[in-house]
Design brief:
Largest sheet: 6 strands, parallel
Number of strands: 28
Oligomer: single chain
Helix content: 25-40%
Strand order of the largest sheet: 11-10-14-15-9-16
Length: 715
């Protein structure tokens, strides 16, 4: 066991209710042998805790850490409640005010009768205090319940930490399922994988149970199916892939014949389904089936709009905005108005945003229209271009990170009558299913996206599957507007989409290909960055896109290189080292997860305003005047953003884009990836790498078609 200190909380300096992190001052009464110098003194402590009380003795396990600026602190890894044993301590504890009906004088009577075993006796006998003169049976019962409830959660947390869970994990578990926790630990610990990482639960399970038990094998199999699906984006996983994944959990010692027996059992329990040597988890199946049911229902609703009225409106819209719409765009507007479910798809510069604006302007009641997008940046861009407030899907559905659920759902549906979703290729099956549950049966849905872009990060290929259905009304836009005689970006995107190889393209003022070996990529990038800095180009409008994180030309290393150019070490700027990353005030960063409570979303770009190291480690980030403070436990929610992944850039656009195509990343090159990267650029695009790798990415179909079951459900 690690070192420990015993004593009381003097005060709490800081606490974060979201992650249970606390900073406080602790009066040490006792300790392990090598910490005896701290007995009788006070020391600051940091760690994750449930509710703490200054009237209770605690035993804190952990270690002394030395802060370079604020000296010694005790970093707590686990803790437990200690019952007071000294008579004076027990009297002080019972008479502290924690227990209604007991004052100091009554506490003295209780201790005079029961002595040092007072607390133990009260916990075990609900009527023990009623034997004391002046204490009623009701008061005795209340104190019995209070005393036990004060320690129950802490004991559960202590037991979980002893099992192998961290304090933070233990607090999350207890807060989520304290009432059923004993049964869960006894019968199926893997239920906790909804709260804690599977591998952590699995490692704890193996410490106390047979690693070849039926429960473990079945949970490993279902987890392996999920793992494969999240790696590939498919909603089904081949039996062979799943078996290979399962072997990792049994040191490659698990017979295929046994595996197939367990598959059969899981299929009979309806936990998984099998389709032509592919496996599908039941909740994946239910999700795609539900989407199809809703889509089929919306698709059957017929509207009776006046086509003559629509035609007149389009003419009026053209005059008002001084534009001329082509036939495809007019058909997209007419189709969106005439159908309860409609899809608009096309590449950059084909007028998708103009069409959305025309649709929105057609309706008088703007408050009944919900404009949605998957990311914060795409929602902001939608708001700016359309002139009507747009929202992320998570914010629209009121995501609650405490309960991991949406506040707008099938029991509390939105009142929106028309829902338009942009960048729909990024939406996975689970998010789309949640959105459909939150919408009324009569709502009009218009889906807008580019089917040639990367699909969602999570499983599913919803836009592609819906477009593949012959029964859903849709319009493909092909004519490119956003170009001029010397522009090449949108022409390049069209060539990539059609898999046309690129020879020379340096005659255009908005596109440049820099032929470079892997060894010279960083030098070439430095030259570009220095030029950007000298020209005072805003970092908001300059973005480097890279396929992979690792390696010399990966995102992590390039961020360090670019940080040294755009925001070098400066004694006037506070900084903090987190892992192998240095975060410095003024650094450009990217949000990695959705945080509805703070109105910041996956892919949002911000800048560090303030780095604090005491009394709590925190970093304040400004996301377009939305300031969010991150504690040390949340530092994994953002990262440096001078260079970002192509996946993270989806839904965003930048005036100036540099794409790094290192030969070492070649296995990641494929058509949709390079298409998505190139279409992020609005004014200038530079690609650094070798042209043969660029052409390889154009022709490669790797990961271009996902395996799903949704289209099988759509009628």
């Amino acid at each position: 066991m690690s070192d420990y200190i015993v004593g009381k909380i003097i005060r709490i300096i800081y606490e974060n209710n979201t992650n249970s992190y606390k900073v406080g001052v602790f009066k040490v009464k006792d300790s392990s042998n090598n910490l005896k110098d701290f007995v009788g003194t006070s020391i600051s402590f940091v760690g994750n805790f449930n509710n703490l009380s200054s009237e209770i003795f605690y035993k804190l396990y952990g270690s002394i850490v030395s802060h370079p600026k604020y000296g010694e602190q005790f970093s707590v890894s686990s803790y437990e409640i200690c019952n007071p044993t000294d008579d004076d301590e027990i009297i002080s504890y019972l008479g502290s005010g924690l227990f209604k009906g007991i004052g100091i004088k009554t506490a003295e009577k209780i201790v005079n009768k029961y002595g040092s075993k007072t607390i133990e006796i009260i916990k075990n006998d609900p009527y023990a205090l009623s034997k004391i003169n002046g204490v009623s049976v009701k008061t005795s019962l209340n104190i019995y319940e209070k005393l036990n409830s004060l320690t129950q959660e802490e004991e559960l947390i202590s037991n979980l930490t002893k099992m192998g869970f961290s304090v933070n994990e233990s607090v999350k578990i207890v807060k989520t399922c304290s009432l059923n926790l004993t049964d869960i630990i006894k019968n199926n610990l893997y239920i906790l994988t909804n709260i804690v990482d599977f591998d952590k639960v699995d490692s704890v399970y193996k410490k106390y149970n047979d690693p070849n038990s039926d429960i473990r094998i079945e949970n490993v199999i279902t987890h392996s199916i999920k793992n494969v699906c999240y790696k590939t984006g498919d909603t089904l996983a081949s039996i062979e892939e799943v078996y290979i994944e399962v072997l990792k959990y049994f040191n490659n010692d698990f017979k295929l014949s046994s595996f197939k027996i367990y598959l059969k059992n899981l299929i009979e329990q309806y936990k998984i389904y099998e389709f032509d040597n592919y496996l599908m988890l039941n909740y994946f199946y239910d999700t795609e089936e539900y989407i199809a049911q809703r889509i089929n229902m919306y698709n059957k609703i017929k509207l009776n709009e006046n086509n003559s009225k629509i035609k007149k409106y389009i003419s009026k819209f053209e005059k008002k905005n001084n534009i001329i719409l082509n036939d495809d765009q007019k058909e997209a507007i007419t189709g969106s108005i005439n159908n309860n479910l409609f899809i608009i798809t096309g590449g950059p510069g084909t007028g998708k945003t103009t069409i959305i604006k025309a649709i929105v302007d057609y309706y008088d009641d703007k408050n009944s229209i919900a404009l949605l997008a998957p990311t914060g940046r795409s929602a902001k861009r939608m708001s700016f271009c359309i002139g009507t407030l747009a929202s992320t899907i998570h914010k629209f559905l009121k995501w609650d990170k405490e309960t991991s659920s949406f506040g707008v759902n099938e029991y509390n549906q939105s009142k929106a009558k028309i829902v338009i979703i942009d960048e729909f290729s990024m939406v996975d099956i689970f998010l789309f299913s949640s959105l459909l549950k939150a919408l009324k049966d009569t709502v009009k849905i218009i889906l807008v996206g580019d089917a040639n872009q990367l699909p969602s990060i999570s499983p599913g290929n919803v836009l592609y599957d819906l477009l593949s259905s012959g029964n859903i009304n849709k319009k493909y836009l092909t004519h490119i507007y956003r170009t001029n005689e010397k522009s090449f970006i949108n022409i390049l995107a069209d060539k990539i989409k059609n898999k046309e190889l690129i020879d020379e393209a340096n005659d255009y003022n908005d596109f440049k290909f820099i032929e470079s070996s892997d060894n010279n990529i960083i030098n070439n990038l430095k030259v570009i960055c220095e030029s950007v800095k000298n020209k005072n180009i805003s970092l908001d409008e300059f973005q480097v896109l890279v396929p992979m994180y690792k390696g010399n030309n990966g995102i992590d290393n390039l961020n360090k290189t670019m940080q040294n150019i755009f925001n070098p070490n400066n004694n006037d700027l506070e900084e903090m080292i987190v892992g192998d990353i240095t975060y410095r005030e003024n650094d450009k960063v990217i949000q990695l997860v959705n945080d509805v409570d703070n109105n910041v979303f996956n892919g949002d770009i911000g800048y560090i305003e303030k780095v604090n190291t005491y009394p709590k480690k925190s970093i304040l980030i400004n996301f377009s005047n939305n300031r969010v403070e991150y504690e040390h436990t949340d530092f994994d929610k953002f990262s440096l953003a001078y260079a970002v992944s192509i996946h993270k850039s989806q839904g965003s656009e930048y005036d100036n884009v540099v794409i790094v195509l290192a030969n070492s990343h070649r296995r990641m090159f494929y058509n949709k990836l390079i298409y998505t990267a190139c279409t992020r650029a609005k004014k200038n695009l530079i690609i650094i790498g070798q042209k043969n790798n660029f052409n390889y990415s154009i022709t490669s179909n790797y990961s271009s078609k996902r395996i799903t079951h949704l289209k099988e459900f759509i009628k």
